[in-house]
Amino acid sequence: MARTVGKITLVRRIVQVCMLVLFCLPPLLAGWGLAGLFAGGDGEVATPAEGVFFGSLSSSSVSGVTLFDPLAALEVLAASRSLLVASALAGALLVAVVYGLVRARAFCSWVCPVNLIGEGVDAARRRLGIAVPESTVPRRAKIGVAVAVVALSALVGFPVFELVSPIGAVNKGLVFGGFAGLGTLVAIVIAELLVSRRVWCRSLCPLGGTFQVLGRAGQVNVAIDHGACIHCDKCREACLADPAILDAPLAGADVIVRAGDCMACGACVDACPTDALRFRLGRPRKPAAAPADEALTAL
Ligand code: SF4
Ligand code: SF4
Q: Over the stretch 90-117, which tens digit does the pLDDT of each residue have?
């Protein structure tokens, strides 16, 4: 059944599309400039790298400040076996601190184009009436994938995930018509249509696994008003990360969604019919009476 788009999801869609345009525009503009499609006489055409913003989702430059995705930086570090990649490490640290303080996996739901495609596949699957299981692979598997990717990069001396990454494939494909990573993207679409709901973003993406670990420090959290909850389960059905991360707050064992896996996507807030859920800043302590099952909510 088609779902109505809530306010937070609408804003998120706009941000997702803006991000896609932001990463594709500088090289496209430069290409048009070089092809003489801009008026500007015979003056020199600036290269994309000379602009205010340039780059990909793995590494970019904003007003001369280099930003690196933390997993790509770890891969480069492992592959080069040298601490001389200082700019990558500094850029990754900046990204890790900023995202970590907000909600690390907000990158997944607000910026990453693969999540946008995954949500499209999910909607198409629902319309077509194709039923697939919720969570066939544990969501912590993606942390293991991240560790394996870094170890393999060290072994072969090359940042391996960047070669097959579906994340870069979207904007490289749109701008350059490149096919690197396209195979991964096709495999993801097939798996999410036929095997398990959102299996890539929930359980397999190594960048998601890296942000899942950082997510424990996030200060933007979904909070619950236990008195207003009617236990309709609509939030769990809508959750982009894993319905299980809502278990503790719904059971009255916590006051926020504490898991580092929460993407701060707001789908649960939009879906709640009684406004029992809302975003709040800060991480209040877990209620003392809560079951000490840290394994449920740790990551
Ligand atoms: S708990 Fe809510 S905000 Fe967090 S990932 Fe699930 S739906 Fe999104
Ligand atoms: S959608 Fe709202 S009312 Fe329904 S179970 Fe979730 S928090 Fe409770």
A: 888 888 898 889 999 999 999 999 999 9
From the alpha carbon of 233, which atom of ligand 2 is closest?
A: 5
Q: Where are the domains of the chain?
A: 1-218, 219-297
276 lines ligand 2 (CB under 6 A): yes
- Which residue's alpha carbon is nearest to atom 6 within ligand 1? 239
Beta strands 65-68 and 220-224 are: unpaired
pLDDT in tens, 10-60: 999 999 999 888 877 766 666 555 555 555 555 565 565 566 666 667 677
What's the 71 CA to ligand 2 centre distance in angstroms? Answer: 35
Topology (CATH) of 219-297: Alpha-Beta Plaits (3.30.70)
For 47, residues 6+ apart whose C-beta sits below 8 A from its C-beta are: 30
Pocket test for ligand 1, best of 203, 224, 233, 262 (most atoms within 8 A of CB): 262
